[in-house]
Every structure is written in C-alpha cells, then in structure tokens.
Design brief:
The protein is of the alpha+beta class. It has one domain: Archease, Possible Chaperone, Chain: A, domain 1. The protein contains 2 helices and 7 strands. The strands form 2 sheets. It has a 4-stranded antiparallel beta sheet with strand order 1-2-7-6, with helices on one face. It is globular, with a radius of gyration of 14 Å.
C-alpha cells in the first residue's frame, strides 16, 4: 500500500508509506494529487526541483508546498516522480517529476494549503510513514 486516506472533519488527511523516506515522500505527493484527481495523468513534461528544510517535517511540508506552487503558477499536474533523493543530514531534497497541464483534467477539489496540523515523518520498524492534512 502506497498511501491511505483517513477520516477528517473538514480537510483531507492521509498517511503515506515507503521502505525508505524518499519512497514515503514520493507516495505523499502521489496521495496529494490523487485527492484531486484519481485517474491516470499523462507524463507530458518534466520538472526538476530542489528543496531545503529545517527538519524532516519541514522538508515534507516544503516539498508538497512546492508541488502546489507548481500547480498554481505553472499548471503542472503531477503524473509520477522519476527520482527523489533526500540528504537526511542537511534536510535537502532533489526530485525529477513528470506531469501534464492541469487544464487537461477534471480536478474535483482545490487544495488551499499544506498544514502542519497532525503532520509527522516517522520510521516504525522497517517502514517509513508520513502523515499530512491538506486544507481544502
């Protein structure tokens, strides 16, 4: 299982999973975009990003916030993440992604912001888990 949606009174809450923190971050991004559109998105164009954070939660927040920024400003709608590398010591992230123009899809929900409410990045046994609440 890559991610699961959890009950929340007004917003969208999910947990994402991975064997590595990078995989859990990838699945967090996929969960966020899946909450807006749950069908296949064509990999028409490539985007590369570099993010810096203060800790693991801030790095996740900044990563998802950058994806929302790309959606809002460049209309980039995520299809897949080809590579995602995390420098855990310095809280840096580099990712290469594919996606398409958002106008080509019937997006059924508008995400206003990523929140820190109930957010975590944990390693439990051999599994990495993230939890995020999206303000809609």
């Amino acid at each position: 299982m890559k991610f699961k949606f959890l009950e929340h009174t007004a917003d969208i809450k999910f947990q994402a999973f991975g064997k590595t923190m990078s995989e859990a971050f990838k699945n967090s991004a996929l969960a966020m975009f899946n909450s807006m559109y749950d069908k296949k998105v064509k990999p028409v164009k490539k985007v590369k990003i570099k993010i810096k954070g203060k800790d693991n939660e801030n790095l996740l927040y900044e990563f998802l916030e950058e994806l929302l920024f790309l959606l809002d400003t460049k209309h980039f709608f995520l299809s897949s993440i080809k590579s995602l590398k995390i420098d855990k010591k310095n809280f840096k992230l580099e990712a290469e992604m594919t996606g398409d123009h958002a106008k080509n899809y019937d997006i059924h929900i508008d995400i206003k912001a990523i929140t820190y409410n109930e957010m975590f990045v944990k390693k439990i046994k051999d599994k990495h888990i993230t939890q995020v609440v999206l303000d809609v």
